[in-house]
Design a protein that fits this description.
single chain, 324 residues, mainly beta, 11-stranded parallel beta sheet, 10-stranded parallel beta sheet, 33 strands, 48% strand
């Protein structure tokens, strides 16, 4: 599928068969829907004002590159809202899946890959959003409970995912940059920037998250290397529900800059101060550049951190090594 232009109300191409088909579920408009295809290539397409851009389902080998996807927007009381649902979705794909050099705007989730997909490379995509429409996001929950509820620009639950050199902009408290929830993921050389000025409703967006969810997929041997995170956010978070399945996490050579301010500590007692910091970070009232909760065997090495009230926060974790 090369050089296709699709606008709101356009049909959905069903892979190699060329049949027009309605999108599944609540999404009533989409640019391309490919089901049970082999060696699918989608290049240089423009898809405008559809709730979903490109939906890939139950195929073998797919390559999506050089496409422009622009979702609809609406005007809210605080400004322009991004109202697209899914930019590129990949469900139960075998073989190699490559998503490269796409420009994706105003989708709640720009790229979403499920756990039944294998060998995924997500590289050099540019993802922007405006403010988020009303949602069930609850800023009163603690940080760990909130992590699964953020709207991530890139989310992958597939093992051995490689996510590299993507540009992501964050504009609202319920937005996230990159989420990986499976073993062997590599998140490298991405740029995540928040334009928020500080916490709103005691909440901030999140940058890069490695999350073990307590479901089928463990999330071990994840590497987060050489990324650049800037602005007000929880920049890099590694958190697990089952500590024994969240092991071997490397957070290295990342550049994390911000200008977040915090109130000075109210006590000189180290035990009370530690408890106060832990409570504040978990509640989201204080953001750390790097946060690690409920993990085993974490290497935090050679990261550049500036402008944060707290550089590294580790809680309920074993064998955490911080160096240089």
């Amino acid at each position: 599928v090369i050089g296709v232009h699709a606008a709101a109300g356009a049909g959905i191409v069903n892979g190699e068969t060329g049949r027009v088909k309605q999108a599944p579920g609540p999404i009533d408009t989409a640019g391309i829907f490919a089901h049970a295809t082999r060696r699918l290539a989608i290049a240089d397409c423009t898809i405008l004002r559809t709730l979903a851009g490109i939906l890939l389902e139950a195929g073998v080998d797919a390559d999506v590159r050089g496409c422009e996807l622009v979702a609809p927007t609406s005007l809210g009381t605080a400004g322009t809202l991004s109202t697209g649902v899914l930019g590129i979705s990949c469900i139960a794909y075998a073989g190699a899946v490559r998503l490269e050099r796409n420009a994706i705007s105003d989708y709640e989730r720009a790229i979403d890959v499920d756990a039944k997909t294998s060998s995924v490379a997500i590289e050099d995509n540019a993802i922007t959003r405006q403010l988020s429409p009303p949602s069930n996001f609850n800023p009163a929950l603690d940080l760990i409970a909130r992590l699964p509820t953020y709207s991530y620009a890139i989310a992958s639950r597939a093992a051995s995912t490689e996510i590299a050199e993507n540009d992501i902009a964050l504009r609202d408290i319920d937005q996230g940059g990159i989420l990986v929830s499976a073993s062997g993921a590599v998140v490298a050389a991405n740029r995540v920037a928040s334009t928020m000025q500080g916490p709103r409703a005691r909440a901030l967006p999140v940058g890069i998250v490695a999350l073990e969810t307590g479901q089928d997929n463990p999330a071990s041997n994840v590497a987060i290397r050489g990324n650049h995170c800037s602005g007000a956010m929880h920049a890099i978070v590694a958190a697990g529900e089952r500590r024994e399945l969240f092991t071997g996490i490397t957070i290295a050579a990342n550049d994390v800059t911000s200008s977040l301010l915090s109130e000075p500590p109210q006590t000189n007692d180290p035990v009370a101060l530690g408890a106060s910091i832990a409570t504040a970070v978990r509640a989201g009232a204080v953001a750390a550049a790097i946060t690690c909760i409920n993990a085993i065997g974490v290497a935090i090495e050679e990261n550049g951190v500036s402008g944060w009230p707290l550089a590294v926060f580790a809680d309920e974790s074993d064998a955490v090594r911080c160096a240089a």
